Amino acid sequence: MTISKVSTLVTSAWLRQQIQSTVRNTASVTNNLRVLDSSWVPSPKVDGFKEFFQQGHIPTAVYFDLRTVNPPKYDASIRYPIPDSNVFEDYVEELGISNHTHVVVYDRLNSRSSFRTWFLFKLFGHSQVSVLNGGLKQWVAEGNQVTTETVEVEPGEFNAEFQPNLLRDRESLIKNIETATEQVIDARDTESYKDGHIPGAKNIPFSSIFNEDGTVQAPSELKQLFVKAGVDPRAPIISSCEAGLTACGIIVAAHILGQENVPLYNGSFREWEALAAPDMITRSQS
């Protein structure tokens, strides 16, 4: 079966049309489109399903729990270890996702969890995944309704195909400092970046990729962001941040600009700072 390429981002108008058509065809809801609400915050005290999803979500959506599929390790240098392929497979099958399903993911906060979810699907070989541009905030701003109703889904058949080329480890980053074969982007805020970063890394803060309304900037503006930071958007890139979450937003931005296989340094600066010698951390004076 031929699967057409899907957009990195989709609009609320497009998603509304898809939902309206799938509501008229239950089989289509089950087999072709799956809307995922990934609303989540890092605090272990906050239950995203109860605090976010059950308070109102996009019709036909089901909840994607990052804490279930990607449990945090708060005391480890790598806070969010990559899940096992079988764990990811089993979890998404329970959500009614198959290899041909177009997954559209959103959240109600700042798109951080949406981008991480998008990246995990890419990492396990699922190219049919998009992010709702602007998330739930934009959905509501455009006059669309939310619901507290849940939907029944038929289990999917999902075979993960892990993509190791989409990850970099600490040893790879150390080697890259010498070879400079890949540009490293740090997605943390500018103050954190100046306090200490991987030698040679360029700073594109996660917040800078958005418009004021929370939607992602246009491709021309994203390109200017990259160039202004000293990054060639056409050359190889590694994305990093504090713990491997907001870096996924930079990967989405690069994907929009035509780079389909930008790897994540999943340990990010949390691991780097914990293990690096003092001379392997660059601190800016200004």
UniProtKB/TrEMBL annotation:
Recorded GO CC terms: mitochondrion
Keywords in alphabetical order: Repeat, Transferase
Keyword Transferase: yes
SMART domains in alphabetical order: RHOD
Domain Rhodanese: residue ranges: 29-148, 178-281
Annotated InterPro entries: Rhodanese-like_dom, Rhodanese-like_dom_sf, Thiosulphate_STrfase_CS, TST/MPST-like
Single GO term (MF): thiosulfate-cyanide sulfurtransferase activity
PANTHER family: SULFURTRANSFERASE, THIOSULFATE SULFERTANSFERASE
Protein name as annotated: Sulfurtransferase
Species whose genome carries this gene: Plakobranchus ocellatus
